[in-house]
């Protein structure tokens, strides 16, 4: 009851593939991925049924001319403003920090007569030392490893 075994060899596999795909004869072979006969067979018939349901996939296009205009367009979005325009806009939004230079690296000399400011800095330094002692380095989230 077993069907006959097909002959082995690469020729038989190629022939089986061509029979499944409906290709008759070797002179009709083409390297094209979008064969005309397959595309035309799928494009026959109406797109929508009488009830309004789509019968086959389709793409809505604006117009043929817009597609033709986009053929030689770049594949990425082109810039919409120059760098100078962008920097002016960022400056208007406040996204650019101004200043700097050699004077920005110098720290102001502390006023020795202002005891309140000195006490506040001392308390801040003590609180930071206590925090560092109570939270040693590497004691953060250990991912439930204990």
Can you put this structure into words, describing what you see?
It contains 5 helices and no strands. With 146 residues, the protein is mostly helical. The chain has a domain at 10-34. The longest helix has 20 residues, at 115-134. The radius of gyration is 38 Å and the shape is elongated. The two termini are 66 Å apart. Residues 1-55, 97-121 are annotated as: Disordered. This is Type 2A phosphatase-associated protein. GO terms for molecular function: protein phosphatase 2A binding. InterPro entries: TAP46-like.
Give the termini distance in whole angstroms: 66 Å
Shape: elongated
Low-confidence stretches: none
Enumerate how many helices there are, as a single number. 5
Structural class, by secondary structure, is mainly alpha
Strand content: under 5%
Rg result: 38 Å
Largest sheet: none
Estimate the mean pLDDT confidence. Answer: 79
Query: Which sequence of SSEs, written as H and E, runs from N to C?
Result: HHHHH
β-strand number: 0
Helix content: 25-40%
GO biological process, one term: regulation of signal transduction
GO molecular function, one term: protein phosphatase 2A binding
Region (Disordered): 1-55, 97-121
Organism: Lachnellula suecica
